[in-house]
Amino acid sequence: MNWPQAATAAEIAHNLATVRARIDGACARAGRPASQVRLLPVSKTVDVGRIRLAYAAGCRWLGENKVQEAQRKCAALADLEGLRWSVIGHLQTNKAKAVARFAAEFQALDSLRVAEALDRRLQVEGRALDVLVQVNTSGETSKYGLQPDEVAPFLRELPAFSALRVRGLMTLAVWSADSARVRACFTRLCTLRDRLRDSAPAGCSLDELSMGMSGDFEIAVEEGATVVRVGQAIFGARSTPDSLYWPSGGGA
Question: Which CATH number fits domain 9-239: 2.60.40.10, 3.20.20.10, 1.10.1530.10, 1.20.5.320?
Answer without folding.
Answer: 3.20.20.10
